[in-house]
Design goal:
There is one protein chain. The chain is built from 16 helices and 15 strands. It is α/β, with parallel strands linked by helices and 476 residues long. Helix 2 links the parallel strand 2 and strand 3. The protein is elongated and about 85 Å long. It starts with a helix and ends in a 9-residue tail after the last helix. The model has no long low-confidence stretch (mean pLDDT 95). It binds 2-acetamido-2-deoxy-beta-D-glucopyranose (6 copies). One 2-acetamido-2-deoxy-beta-D-glucopyranose binds next to helix 2.
Length: 476
């Protein structure tokens, strides 16, 4: 057991950082200490370091950390490893007075956060590549911080997770006009997790990442441009006008890319209502030719345990009109350490609706189209998500995505079982299979007659499938 710390020390002191001195001296020198992701070798970040240096119009010293045990960044070594980089940079001729930035990819970004907070006084900023602040509010982070990721990152830093951090930025922006410049959250179209490095892609990255049609050199230039702009803005250089335009354009483009996701999430649960639950109910009723009108009042419950005790009602308000009340709740995947590489959007919408048969019995004047199932409502979620997706993503999914396979509803025997059972989402190498859990009771049933309950595919999960999970394993 004593061997491990000794071994660590030996490795740290033996490891020399990769040092990339700037091609020419000049004003406003800065340093960037780059920390690797898991399983990627430090030298695989050399091209990125050179590209950032090349894109920066003042001298940038780049030092790439070496020496993590098992090639795996970890909190035990982080402080010593970064000290070694700083020492190596100074030995190579870096001036004492430089603005120091920490940059880190993937797991490196998670590991480095605590260090950066503890050493904020001696640092100027943090750059997170395919990574994000975990359980730390963006507004409270003590330094400028750049989140830089891509729309095809298929792991932890997938766009649906980055959307949470971008939402924090949007909330800051009205009061802090500078936030998109000094706390930018940028998703670059077509960039994936492996675009930050060159050479072999380790299996742990390949397993989740989405292959991009974007050329690796072009992607690297895009990434380097954003890093250089961020450094210029943090240094508050007078010639930073182009940088300002670049990051403001990125802020708008990222917002436009994420807007459909936010809109679908709003439809799922907006305070005490769920617009999507009402949409699904209307779809299942399939009223024909506007023969009757129904007013649907949806109540959104905080969780399944409160949903369990709510019961639908239908009241005729005339010969051709009725009021219906329905209830729903949304479940989310468990991710306590904020590091899951799997889908991040809501995992199901549980909706207690009324059956078409019941409404037809209450409104005999009505005409109705064919009876619909929960499966049909899931198809509606997929169609809605695809229609809402950003144009590039829709085109990409239509060209190379695995179509989702919808299975007939699994009928639960009794209400409590319906509450307990989850929407069945089975992700495989050919895409996802989706099966709702349903209950439909007859109008003459002694127990809760005329109900139609569905565990529905959420439209945001359907969109995440279009953006990421439906593309996994497919060729660009
Ligand atoms: C350096 O930047 C120029 C544009 O400013 C670009 O054309 C060139 O490819 C870059 N070189 C490297 C090695 O990144
Ligand atoms: C940046 O520099 C300008 C003058 O060039 C100054 O007015 C401004 O306050 C500075 N901003 C920050 C955040 O230091
Ligand atoms: C970003 O969007 C805002 C609001 O639509 C607009 O006023 C601004 O000009 C846009 N900025 C850039 C750089 O495109
Ligand atoms: C039916 O719903 C409407 C609004 O949705 C409401 O104004 C009306 O009072 C309701 N009628 C009954 C009988 O509940
Ligand atoms: C229908 O009527 C019942 C009993 O009056 C009432 O509790 C319920 O809220 C009504 N539902 C709707 C949707 O108006
Ligand atoms: C709705 O109206 C059209 C045209 O009048 C008719 O062809 C169709 O059968 C009607 N649908 C139902 C379900 O009654």
């Amino acid at each position: 057991m004593l061997l491990l710390p000794l071994l660590l020390l030996a490795l740290v002191s033996a490891a020399r950082s990769i040092v990339l001195p700037p091609p020419a001296p000049g004003d406003n020198p800065a340093a960037m200490v780059l920390v690797q992701g898991a399983d990627v070798y430090p030298e695989q970040y050399k091209e990125l370091g050179l590209a950032i240096q090349n894109a920066t119009d003042s001298p940038l010293w780049v030092g790439i950390a070496e020496g993590f045990l098992n090639n795996f960044p970890n909190p035990l070594q982080i402080s010593a490893v970064i000290s070694t980089v700083m020492q190596d940079l100074k030995e190579a001729g870096m001036p004492e007075e430089v603005d120091v930035f920490i940059a880190a990819h993937s797991l490196g970004g998670v590991v480095v956060q605590g260090y950066v907070v503890s050493n904020a006084a001696s640092l100027r900023g943090l750059m997170l590549f395919g990574s994000y602040l975990t359980n730390r509010p963006l507004a409270e982070f003590p330094l400028p911080v750049l989140h830089l990721s891509g729309t095809l990152d298929g792991g932890q830093a997938r766009p649906t997770r980055m959307a949470d951090t971008y939402a924090e930025l949007m909330a800051m922006e009205p009061e802090h006009d500078w936030a998109p410049l000094l706390k930018p959250v940028i998703l670059l179209e077509g960039v994936d997790h492996a675009h930050f490095f060159t050479g072999d892609i380790p299996p742990s990255v390949a397993e989740h990442d989405i292959l991009s049609e974007l050329d690796a050199d072009a992607a690297r230039q895009m990434l380097a441009g954003r890093c250089a702009a961020f450094v210029a803005l943090v240094q508050n250089r007078t010639l930073a006008e182009d940088s300002r335009t670049m990051l403001r354009t990125d802020y708008n483009a990222t917002g436009a890319f994420l807007a459909p996701l936010y809109e679908l999430q709003r439809q799922e649960a907006d305070g005490e209502r769920s617009e999507w639950a009402a949409t699904a109910q209307r779809y299942l009723l399939n009223v024909a030719n506007e023969s009757v009108t129904v007013a649907i009042e949806s109540s959104h419950e905080p969780d399944l345990s409160t949903l369990e005790h709510q019961h639908t009602t239908v009241n005729a308000t005339g010969d051709t009109s009725a009021n219906i009340s329905i209830f729903s709740s949304v479940e989310h995947p468990l991710d306590p350490v904020d590091a899951s590489p799997n889908s991040h959007t809501s995992s199901e919408i549980a909706v207690k609706m009324v059956s078409q048969e019941l409404v037809a019995s209450v409104l005999p004047a009505g005409t109705f189209g064919p009876r619909r199932s929960c499966r049909d409502a899931n198809q509606l979620a997929l169609d809605t998500a695809l229609a809402a997706a950003p144009d590039t993503a829709r085109e990409r999914f239509s060209r190379r995505g695995h179509p989702a396979v919808l299975l007939d509803d699994h009928m639960a025997l009794i209400g409590p079982l319906w509450v307990q059972e989850r929407l069945r989402l089975t992700y495989g190498t050919d895409g996802v299979q989706v099966q709702s859990v349903a209950i439909e009771t007859a109008v003459d049933s002694p127990f809760f007659p005329g109900n139609h309950y569905c565990k529905l595919l959420s439209p945001s999960r359907a969109l995440e499938y279009v953006l990421i999970d439906g593309l996994r394993g497919t060729q660009p």
